[in-house]
Design brief:
The structure is a homodimer of 385-residue chains. Chain A is globular. Chain A is 37% helix and 21% strand. The longest helix of chain A has 25 residues, at 60-84. In chain A, a hairpin with a 2-residue loop joins β7 and β8 (175-181). By secondary structure, the first copy, chain A, is an alpha/beta fold. Chains A and B meet through α1, α2, β4, β5 and α3 of A and α1, α2, β4, β5 and α3 of B.
Chain lengths: 385, 385
């Protein structure tokens, strides 16, 4: 069936809408990605979202109204992606909408209980598209004692699990994160942890030393040499070789960390610094594999996604550190773009709920059980009996 | 099947939970009310709700957390009503939860769009009771252009519609409201409007002149005489005989109105005043029927609900004004308590959604279409295929 997955991230650049065609569910899922768009937010909506995110500027009337406004925009995003794909909206079967997170409280704090809050009214989406909507995927995982995140491991499981190959799914966004998918894995065999920095340090060095936002294709890093002292300085950060489960945020490897590093190694050439921090990202990933994954799990392939998968120098470094027995490939090479990954994930999670299947991964979220995610909103005039 | 209906009103006295047994749906619905409780709010929750209701004191973190806390309390209410009825919760089939309204914006205002906002997380209710939940009934009606209220007319339709009798459902709460159900009515034949004051004036006169909250059973009003001048003074209020559709709020017949009335008629005895304002309530109801309903619709019965149905003097006055050809009966006499009315209504609306039936009444809410109300949340581990 045809499903649109909708995602609106914390970057507030707009609504990601992926139109997919899916057959079956669970491990039998057969997925074809038909179209993907990012539908931008009008400026006034962006500013209302920003106002809603903060305790100081949010209020009940604003949130009440914005929930309905966003529902309308999500519906527009669905219509737009169908139009671009020349799919008459009457042929669309289902919408999976993550919504816009305006608050996420993973742990209790003072008198606040663990909870999460996504908006973009499903009734409005269902009404304006005349299509069934599944939304609010994170709440049931939290009701079951989980942190409501991450939810992508299940879709990684159904897309990448193999009976013949052990696989690692390495995402390289700001932070690096790996999901382990042993050969013939069941859901309970999966684990996931943050390997350390992804593009954060590379990008910050680009900004500080070159006045650019990132090292496109890894071209600059290709020109320099790795400095052993700087590399071991970086690798000695206590996070890198600490044992999983572990997760890191932007605070450990942010701007402050880079400013301090540049001060300590200011005699090196700019290119050598960039080459070395690129190698640090590669080495922090691979040494985590060698220490914590390879001793217990046979791995045949590493599949790399996220912005870092476009940095060829970084990929070559990872491949050379791993040796030739393990193949490094990108999501893009498998036909799955990194951009559309999350929107596609929510189309697939909607498909699972539609089929009555649980789709959180308790080992990833900490939930007590596997549970069916999301609320179902019928199209306004469906008659099901 | 067994259904619990949950309602938490603006009075904040707690969660109303009604356990009902229902067979079939729509006009074939067969309803038995098994148990009803009001499960009180802890003081801290009541104060968090009050904080959430106002633009000045609400914020996103508070609402995010309170949504989950209320979900847990609603689940506790479900368990409690099942326990009181000796129904093992495993035998419960469905929960219909209205939730706690924290904001309702029926019309656009500045940059706020028409919208409504109920909390009490359905995923938490479904998880903690292991039962399917249908919630958020008002949003789809608003998506279809309605005001999201009132939603009770549909359940009045399925409970009281008759092939052989024309009926009026008169609710006497603070305000009086009538729903017209012609003999053999279809949904589009229904209308509803506010007749004028219900108990508001009677209760305020009790407070001002007798220092009591209400005239229990109508005992005091039974002792006095109707004063013709005061009665015509009251009946001359422009709202009373204005043509429907019309609706009134607490502001027209509130404390100020009563203070002015008492000043103008201070020579009358306390009992005569109370008897006369009781007659005013009766006469405002009956004259609206005689002017706006009886000329076009044959009516056989008036069914009275709300607190006013316990005021025997008021009921006798209504009966005597109507004459003997129209029978006045109370909801209670038909086996439906006024207290449980709304909780039962949301059990029945859940039943309709479960069966894929639309259940708003466009003539009552202003929606462009009849639509299926609510979101469905599966119990966490159901397998439906």
């Amino acid at each position: 069936m045809y499903i649109v997955g909708l995602m609106s991230g914390t970057s507030l650049d707009g609504i990601d809408a992926a139109l997919v065609r899916v057959h079956n569910s669970g491990l039998d899922t057969d997925l074809e990605i038909i179209e993907f768009i990012t539908y931008p937010f009008p400026k006034d909506i962006e500013s209302e979202i920003i106002q809603s995110l903060s305790v100081e500027t949010s209020n009940v009337q604003l949130i009440c109204s914005l929930n309905f406004k966003l529902g309308k925009l999500f519906a527009d995003g669905v219509k737009e992606v169908c139009k671009k794909a020349n799919l008459p909206i009457e042929e669309l079967n289902l919408i999976g909408s993550h919504g816009q997170t305006i608050y996420h409280q993973p742990l209790a704090e003072n008198h606040f209980v663990p909870s999460t809050f996504q908006i973009g009214e499903a009734a409005v989406i269902a009404h304006d598209t005349d299509t069934m909507v599944i939304s609010n995927f994170r709440t049931m995982d939290m009701a079951a004692g989980g942190q409501g995140a991450p939810l992508v491991p299940y879709t990684e499981y159904i897309l990448y699990r193999s009976e013949t190959k052990g696989r690692l799914l390495q995402n390289i966004g700001g932070i690096g994160n790996v999901t382990v998918l042993p050969k013939g894995a069941s859901l309970s065999d999966m684990e996931a942890f943050d390997t350390g920095p992804g593009n954060m340090i590379i990008d910050e060095v680009c900004r500080q030393l070159f006045g650019i936002n990132y090292d496109k294709g890894g071209k600059i890093a290709k020109q320099g040499k790795v400095n052993a002292d700087l590399l071991s300085y970086c690798m000695n950060h206590p996070y890198i070789m600490s044992a999983p489960p572990k997760s890191t945020g932007r605070e450990l490897f942010g701007k402050q960390y880079v400013v301090k590093l540049l001060e300590a190694f200011k005699t090196l050439s700019k290119e050598d610094i960039l080459t070395t921090v690129t190698m640090f990202t590669a080495k922090s990933i691979v040494e985590n594999y060698q220490t914590y994954i390879f001793p217990k799990t046979d791995i045949d392939e590493v599949i790399i996604g996220g912005g870092g998968s476009y940095n060829h120098t970084l990929l070559e470094m990872i491949q050379s550190l791993l040796g030739n027995s393990i193949k490094v490939i990108t999501q893009e090479e498998l036909g799955y773009s990194s951009e559309s990954k999350e929107a596609v994930a929510f189309a697939l999670l909607a498909n699972e709920t539609y089929h009555g299947n649980a789709s959180n991964v308790p080992a990833a979220t900490g939930a007590g059980n596997a549970v069916i995610l999301g609320n179902i909103t019928y199209p306004p005039r469906a008659r099901l009996n």
